[in-house]
Specification:
This is Class I SAM-dependent methyltransferase. One of its GO terms (molecular function) is methyltransferase activity. The chain is of the alpha/beta class. The chain has helices at 9-16, 20-27, 40-50, 68-76, 88-97, 134-144, 164-182, 196-205; strands at 59-62, 81-85, 102-105, 117-121, 145-156, 208-214, 228-235. The protein is 36% helix and 19% strand. Strand 2, helix 5 (88-97) and strand 3 form a beta-alpha-beta unit. Helix 3 (40-50) runs parallel beside helix 4 (68-76) and helix 6 (134-144) packs across helix 8 (196-205). The N and C termini lie far apart (47 Å).
Length: 239
């Protein structure tokens, strides 16, 4: 799962015993050599699905990390793109990779932005927010978008209960809950708290109109349903 240039087991253990912010500061220089980075095929599929929904002017990557999503925005947006993250280490890596972007260091639960963007995206970050924290994040994204703006992110289909992926995710979440019960500060990263129904309800409560489109290029399951979909949350164009 990790390249020889990726983090060692010791480094991962130190990260896991840190806060979310501190852990990602430590991991940042090697993050792109881990399986935690959103794969290029997922990024490309999202860009292809979003392109017909434009044109877009300014773009925002929420929880941008080392900047993989900024490449998607740069391919779609005519104006400047902005990355937001609360890890200074991750932002430093993003600045090196995407020098034309703007950056804001901020907590996504309290975005300091208002009606500035046409398109907002996030990749692989939702598991870092407890269900009770998502409404504040979604409200901040809604506030950051211009009227008619779009918030988009990929979501994977839940693995069947008989699959190894289901039990691996369940085991990881259990280990995180035990770790957070015994150790402070907490490290919030859960795989099984991000269901489509819950996300749809939280986005709707934040004022979005929500739809989904399949990312068919990423394949389909045995029942012909797609492995991945793209959530599209549209802000009303009325002021």
């Amino acid at each position: 799962m990790f390249s020889p240039q990726g983090p060692s087991l010791r480094e991962l253990m130190i990260q896991a015993m840190s806060s979310v912010e501190g852990g990602y500061d430590l991991l940042a220089p090697k993050f792109d050599r881990t399986p935690f980075r959103t794969p290029d095929d997922v990024l490309d599929a999202c860009a292809d699905a979003l392109r017909p929904l434009g044109p877009f002017d300014r773009g925002l990557d929420v929880c941008c990390g080392t900047g993989a999503g900024l490449g998607v925005l740069e391919s779609l947006c005519a104006g400047r793109v902005t990355g937001v993250d609360f890890s200074g280490g991750m932002l430093a890596q993003a600045r090196d990779a995407y020098r034309d972007a703007e950056y804001v260091r901020a907590d996504a639960r309290a975005l300091p932005l208002a009606e500035a963007f046409d398109l907002a995206v996030t990749f692989g970050a939702l598991g870092h927010f407890l269900p009770a924290e998502r409404p504040a994040m979604f409200a901040g994204v809604h506030r950051a978008l211009r009227p008619g703006g779009l918030f988009a992110f990929p979501i994977s289909a839940p693995p069947p209960v008989t699959s190894s992926a289901y039990w691996a995710a369940s085991g990881f979440d259990l280990a995180m809950r035990v770790r957070n019960a015994l150790w402070r500060p907490p490290f919030v990263m859960y795989y099984r708290t991000v269901s489509l129904d819950a996300l749809r309800a939280d986005l709707t409560a934040a004022g979005f109109t929500v739809s989904t489109v399949p990312l068919s290029s990423l394949g389909r399951r045995a029942d012909s349903s797609p492995h991945f979909g793209l959530v599209l949350a549209r802000k009303s164009d009325a002021r």
